[in-house]
Specification:
The chain contains four helices and three strands. With 117 residues, it is of the alpha+beta class. A three-stranded antiparallel β-sheet has the order 2-1-3, with helices on one face. α2 packs parallel to α4.
């Protein structure tokens, strides 16, 4: 495998704003492996963060971020329609479309809000 570029991003919580992201992209130099370049990039980002934030807060997130959530667009559309209902008659039109736990939860929540309100 030939690695032409290494890209690294770290998130730092600094207390002043929600988060600070620092990222860098680098190409391995002559006689330098991708692993060495990656290590240098990590060190450079840590140094930049320490220089701009003397309180020296550790990175909140490093490495892979994990799996992204799966969004079911059909369910999202049904939930949107359910939440937009202003009467129980409108809401009842969508009862048969509620086939997932998320849509049923939205239906029951909106039913209770309209029934009690």
């Amino acid at each position: 495998m030939i690695v032409e570029k290494v890209k690294y991003t770290a998130q730092f919580e600094n207390g002043q704003i929600v988060a600070q992201w620092i990222g860098i992209e680098a190409s391995p130099g002559f006689e330098e492996t991708a692993d060495q370049t990656f290590q240098l990039v990590q060190e450079k980002i840590a140094k930049w963060h320490q220089q701009s934030n003397p309180q020296n807060v550790a990175p909140a997130q490093q490495g892979p971020m994990g799996e992204l959530p799966v969004i079911n667009l059909v369910d999202e559309r049904i939930i949107f329609k359910i939440e937009d209902c202003s009467t129980l008659d409108q809401l009842r039109r969508y009862k048969d479309e509620c086939k997932s736990p998320a849509t049923m939860e939205a239906y029951v929540k909106r039913f209770n809000a309209l029934n009690n309100g």
